[in-house]
C-alpha cells in the first residue's frame, strides 16, 4: 500500500506535495526569462554598459581616484597606456577621469531635459485631450509650431535667450521635446476616455477631475513613459551637441561634448582626445536606443 494511501475519489497526497501534472510556474518563468536574455546579447550588453555609465555618474570615485581638473604638465598628451588608460590631454589631465566625472554633468542635464519635456508635454496633452474644443485646438496648434522648427535650431535659440550653462541647456533641449510628449498623451487620453470603465465612472456621478486622475491619467501614462525612454538617447546627443558648441558648462568642467570639442586642435597628434569621448558618447546613445526599442516592443505586445 502506498504511503500516501488512496481514497474512493482518487489518490491522497500529503499536504504541500504538488501533483505530478501540476505546472511548475517558477522554473518555467525562469527559463523564459533566461531564454529572453540569451536570445538578445545586444540588449544584455546595452543594459550592462548603461548601468556602468549611470554608476559612474552617481559614484565616480568607484572608477577613479584622480582629480579631473588637476593636470601634470610632464604627462601632457600621453597616449593610452597602463598609467593613463585613455591617455591625457594637452594639460596633462587624465582623460578617463574626465570622462567618468563628465558622465555626471551630461546625464544630469539629460535627465532634467527629459523631465521638462515629460512634465510639460504630458500636462499639455492631458489638458488638450480632456478639455477638447478651443483649448484642444489652441494647444495642438502650439505643438505644431514647435514641431515645425528643427530641434537643434530651437534649442540654440532658447539657450541663447536663457544663457549658457548645464541647466539652461537642459531646459532648452527639454522644450524641444514637449510637442511629441503632448501629442502622445493627448492620443492616449482620447483613447482611454472612450473606454467602458471611464463611461461607467462618469455615469455613476464621479466628478470629472476624479475620473481624470484615477482612471484616465494612470492608464494613459504607459506609452508616454516608454517614449521618455526612447527620447533619452536623442537627448544625450542633443545636450552633447550644445556642449560641443560651447553652450554647456564653463571650462574646465568635463562635459562629454566639451571633451570632444577640446581635442579638435590635436587630431593629428593626439587622436584619442576626440575619438575616445566620441565613442563613449556614441555607445551610450546606441545602448539607450537598444533598451528603448526593447521597452517599446514589450509595450506593444502587452497592448490589447
Q: Give the total of beta strands.
A: 2
Low-confidence stretches: 1-7, 16-22
Strand order of the largest sheet: 1-2
Structural class: mainly alpha
Q: Radius of gyration in whole Å, from Cα? A: 26 Å
The string of secondary-structure elements, in order, is: EEHHHHHHHHHHH
* First-to-last CA distance: 52 Å
For the largest beta-sheet, the strand count, sense and barrel status come to:
2 strands, antiparallel
Shape: globular
Tally of discrete structural domains = 1
What CATH architecture label applies? Answer: Orthogonal Bundle
Helix content: 55-70%
Report the CATH topology name: MetI-like fold
Mean model confidence by pLDDT: 85
Number of helices: 11
Domain ABC transmembrane type-1: 103-292
Organism: Streptomyces drozdowiczii
Keywords: Cell membrane, Membrane, Transmembrane, Transmembrane helix, Transport
Pfam families: BPD_transp_1
